[in-house]
Write a structure and sequence with these properties.
The complex is a heterodimer.
Chain A lengths: L26 E5 L5 E6 L3 H20 L2 H17 L1 H12 L3 H21 L3 H5 L1 E3 L5 E9 L2 E5 L7 H12 L3 E5 L6 H12 L7 E4 L3 H10 L5 E3 L8 H10 L3 E3 L15 H5 L1 E9 L3
Parallel strand pairs in A: 5-6, 5-8, 6-7, 8-9
Antiparallel strand pairs in A: 1-2, 3-4, 4-10
Chain B lengths: L13 H6 L3 H10 L5 H12 L5 H12 L2 E4 L7 H12 L13 E4 L4 H7 L6 E6 L9 H13 L4 E5 L2 H5 L3 H15 L3 E5 L8 H13 L4 E3 L11 H18 L4 E3 L7 H15 L11 E3 L2 H14 L12
The chains are: A alpha/beta, B alpha/beta.
């Protein structure tokens, strides 16, 4: 009997809870850290960006309106599913980032823990960032954090799983919906994450994952008027200034890209959560 | 264009005049119309809908479509304030870009026509009023005529009447024919649009018969639906109606219009209709005199897409007055 031939996968995008091919019909080859072929990934176009933003906008009222407790439960469930796919993440991480197995294990475990950490924040963030403000009058004055809206996220180019989780989870935990552009050369963990999201309880459209050329998609996502915030982390350095300018035209919140990718293993804080929350202050007359 | 040698007193070619002589002749004529090839018309509609319209042509199509919109509000909860704000939107669909063309008309219930006429005075935008007991069309002829007179007295320049679908389905064609004629008379100089409510006519053959019946009786426009019944306007149904006005033009030399209404919400849909108009009826129908969209939310999407074309980036409902 002849040797068995590997089945090379051709992955698709994750938009609105479904897995469509790119509108453009394009795909590109994904290789491991040594240049060996791993799989084909869909190469998204600007129209896929448009569809993903529309899906995220459609999902926003439901997700932002869900109780914080409920959002937490859904995100915990995602963490459970991540745990179930641990082996697959290990393999993909070891292949695409070229790290030893030991190191890959510690990255995957940290990524799952990071997801749980953010899931825990859903019903606590209001107490930390909100306030009962003292006022000189017969009123109560409250400040509560509210989600910003649709967030465009450019996942880190190097850290394809831990970095990805560290930028995506805070967006979702706050009640925002996300359009995520995966790492261009290391998209497999993001694709597997989208398969995890699709089979967990996360409503379709809350997170949308596009793969393709970051530099091609960035101008369209950042200039899109229906996107309320962008995280420029994974954008090409040459485009960053122009992207920030373009985001300003529609008054978006911008999380600027760091000069170098940070050490994602470091303990997180709530800065990223706060980046996608808007304080709402309410005055309420005291009872008679 | 055919030039018939014999024309009757009504100005119609002999065989069409003969068709309206009495109930039997009318029935014979309508049932003698060729049947519609259901698979064929659906396939053609789907085929034309795949045509790609880009860049300058798309911008032209968007502007043309905006100029064809009958901005409609037909709700029980309509108020004068709502009608006035709708009129403001019809005059200037995108206040940030004043070069955006105005809508063709505003379509309201007859009791609100006066309010719309006042708000649109001097703008050239028409006021269409529904009449004849919209949307069911079920009452006595006296009531329907009174309804029409109310609209016309209020100054409506267009009257959208509904046919009695019950009468049509039970084959009382002459009753509908006479009804359309008497409403046309009552409407006077106002344009008469005849709503067939194709969603209740069941077959394409019936749509073709109803179209010809309305054209014979003097309707200036044939309109697909009230918007209260699902399915409302569909591309294949509009195809059948566009064929009818085209054939009417060939037979008589008169240009009559078509108005799909209900369910057209996106620019993509609207452009598909324009392609159908161009290909099925002909280029002269690409004008608000002969083709209209009955819609409320369509205008918002057209304005959005117009901005996307001009700004070079995707726009959002936050930036336009979306109804």
């Amino acid at each position: 009997m002849s040797e068995r031939i590997d089945i090379a996968k051709t992955y698709k995008l994750y938009v609105g809870g479904a897995f469509p091919r790119s509108e453009s019909g394009r795909s590109y080859q994904v290789t491991d850290s040594r240049g060996k072929f791993l799989a084909n990934a869909a190469q998204a176009s600007r129209k896929d960006v448009r569809d993903a933003v529309a899906a995220a906008r459609k999902a926003f009222p439901g997700w932002s309106g869900a109780t914080a407790y409920n959002r937490g439960q859904v995100l915990y469930r995602v963490a459970e599913m991540l745990q179930g796919r641990r082996e697959q993440f290990l393999n993909e991480l070891a292949a695409s980032e070229g790290v030893p197995v030991k190191r890959a294990q510690s990255i995957v475990d940290t990524a799952i823990d990071r997801w749980v950490w953010y899931a825990g924040w859903t019903d606590k963030v209001a107490t930390v960032l909100g306030a009962a403000n003292p006022v000189a009058g017969p009123y109560f004055c409250f400040t509560v954090p509210e989600p910003t809206g649709v967030v465009g996220v450019f996942a880190p180019q190097q850290s394809s799983l831990l970095g990805l989780v560290s930028v995506l989870a805070p967006v979702l935990a706050g009640g925002n919906t996300a359009v995520l552009i995966a790492s261009q050369d290391r998209p497999l963990p993001a694709i597997t994450l989208s398969e995890v999201l699709a089979t967990s309880d996360l409503p379709g459209g809350v997170a949308n994952v596009l793969t393709g050329r970051t530099g091609e998609l960035a101008p369209w996502l950042v200039s899109h008027a229906d996107v309320n915030a962008v995280d420029l982390c994974g954008t090409p350095e040459s485009q960053r200034a122009e992207l920030e300018r373009s985001a300003a035209n529609t008054v978006k919140r911008v999380v600027p890209a760091p000069a170098h990718e940070p050490d994602w293993m470091a303990a997180p804080d709530i800065r990223r959560l706060r980046g996608y929350l808007e304080p709402k202050t309410v005055w309420h007359p005291m009872g008679v | 264009m055919a030039t018939p040698t014999t024309r009757s007193a009504s100005g119609l070619p002999a065989e069409l005049a003969e068709a309206t002589r009495d109930d039997t002749a009318l029935r014979r004529f309508l049932h003698g119309l060729p049947g519609v090839d259901q698979v064929g018309v659906e396939q053609r509609a789907a085929g034309l809908a795949t045509r790609s319209i880009k860049k300058a042509s798309k911008l032209w199509a968007i502007d043309t479509a905006i100029g064809m919109v009958d901005l409609t509000t037909l709700e029980g909860a309509d108020t004068e304030g709502r009608v006035r704000s709708l009129c403001a939107k019809a005059r200037r669909p995108d206040p940030d870009r004043p070069e955006t063309p105005p809508a063709a008309a505003v379509c309201v219930y007859p009791d609100l026509a006066e309010c719309a006429v006042k708000a649109l005075d001097g703008t050239g935008i028409g006021v269409a009023s529904v009449a004849t007991v919209f949307p069911s069309g079920r009452s006595s002829r006296a009531v329907k005529l009174a309804d029409t007179e109310l609209a016309v007295r209020a100054g409506a320049s267009e009257v959208d009447m509904v046919i009695d679908r019950g009468a049509f389905l039970s084959g009382r064609y002459m009753q509908i024919f006479e009804e359309i004629q008497s409403i046309k008379e009552a409407a006077g100089s106002a344009h008469l649009k005849v709503i067939l409510e194709t969603g209740e006519l069941a077959t394409y053959d019936n749509v073709r018969r109803a179209s010809w019946l309305a054209l014979l009786a003097g309707g200036d426009f044939i309109k697909t639906s009230t918007g209260k019944v699902s399915p409302a306007a569909t591309l294949p149904v509009t195809h059948v109606m566009l064929q009818a006005v085209h054939d009417w033009y060939v037979a008589t030399g008169e240009l009559r219009g078509v108005k799909p209404a209900g369910g057209i919400r996106t620019t993509k849909d609207a452009i598909r209709y324009l392609v159908a108009v161009r290909e099925v009826a002909g280029p002269e129908w690409l004008s608000s005199r002969l083709f209209r969209f009955g819609a409320s939310s369509l205008l918002g999407d057209l304005v959005l897409q117009r901005r996307t074309q001009l700004d070079g980036h995707y726009s959002a409902p936050d930036y336009v007055a979306v109804d």
